């Protein structure tokens, strides 16, 4: 019996060593970020080596993950639509859903802008000349008493429902948080600093707000969380001074894509997401 004690001790020590990494892995907090360019952060330094997605290493998922101490799997990708969650984006990139699993603890999602073509609509609203030397996009999108962008947003709601159900199915243990879009334009805009007539600026921002409101409504219907970036970005829109803005305008004043968040905005948005997640866990 005495001769077997060293062997037993060695066996126990070996078993403990083998079990230790597994126990540590079980304690890791896995955070998966899904979404489009509003989450990815195109052109914000430093960019992920996967140049197809224009994904920044300083986007809001990266900021939030650092604040909450999470292991981040970031598959946000510029140009993404909800369909790209279940199929290959550009015919090359794996579906974003593929990174979800039972081990996932947190999922954040920013999506919908490309589905309803909000950026394209905003670009079509640019007018280099003051009224009446041009055409109002608000008039065009609401001709005949029908709000074209509003109708697109309403039609997207069932797809958001399906998306949330898929996320819940693939990551049943995760907290799910939809993250809305922010305040890109203040009331009345700031023509000619941003070359969009006042009523067109109001129409574009009201459409952004409508999309965020729909995302909030669907999130609540599915028991998911929602982070509203509208209030936190008030006063930090494309009309603000370069040192204050969270979104770049048509001509960027910092390293970021036009009509997208900059690094300052991503830092603020990451803080909002981290605070919301921490409040849910408290």
From TrEMBL:
BP-aspect Gene Ontology terms: triglyceride catabolic process
Annotated keywords: Disulfide bond, Signal
GO molecular function: triacylglycerol lipase activity
Signal peptide range: 1-25
SUPFAM superfamilies: SGNH hydrolase
Domain SGNH hydrolase-type esterase: 33-268
Gene3D superfamilies: SGNH hydrolase
CDD domains xrefs: SEST_like
Coiled-coil segments on the chain, per record: none
One Pfam family linked to the record: Lipase_GDSL_2
Name the record gives this protein: Lysophospholipase L1
Upper lineage: Bacteria, Bacillati, Actinomycetota, Actinomycetes, Pseudonocardiales
């Amino acid at each position: 019996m005495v001769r077997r004690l060293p062997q037993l001790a060695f066996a126990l020590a070996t078993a403990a060593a083998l079990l230790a990494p597994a126990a540590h892995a079980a304690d890791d907090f896995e955070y998966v970020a899904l979404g489009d360019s509003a989450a990815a952060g195109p052109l914000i330094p430093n960019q992920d080596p996967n140049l197809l997605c224009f994904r920044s290493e300083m986007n809001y998922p990266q900021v939030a993950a650092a604040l909450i101490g999470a292991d981040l799997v970031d598959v946000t990708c510029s140009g993404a639509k909800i369909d790209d969650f279940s199929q290959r984006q550009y015919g090359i990139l794996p579906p974003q859903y593929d990174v979800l699993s039972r081990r996932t603890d947190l999922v954040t999602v920013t999506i919908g802008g490309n589905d309803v073509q909000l950026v394209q609509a905003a670009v079509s609203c640019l007018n280099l000349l003051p009224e009446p030397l041009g055409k109002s996009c608000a008039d065009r999108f609401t001709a005949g008493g029908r709000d074209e962008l509003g109708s697109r947003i309403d039609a997207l709601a069932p797809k958001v429902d399906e998306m949330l159900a898929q996320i819940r199915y693939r990551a049943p243990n995760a907290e799910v948080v939809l993250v809305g879009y922010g305040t890109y334009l203040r009331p009345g805009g700031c023509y000619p600093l941003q070359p969009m007539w006042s009523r067109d600026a109001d129409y574009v921002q009201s459409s952004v707000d409508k999309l965020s409101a729909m995302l909030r409504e669907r999130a609540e219907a599915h028991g998911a969380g929602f982070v509203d970036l509208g209030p936190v970005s008030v006063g930090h829109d494309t009309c603000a001074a370069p040192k204050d803005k969270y979104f770049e305008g048509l001509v960027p004043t910092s390293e970021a894509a036009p009509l997208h968040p900059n690094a300052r905005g991503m830092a603020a948005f990451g803080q909002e997401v981290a605070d919301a997640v921490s409040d849910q866990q408290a």
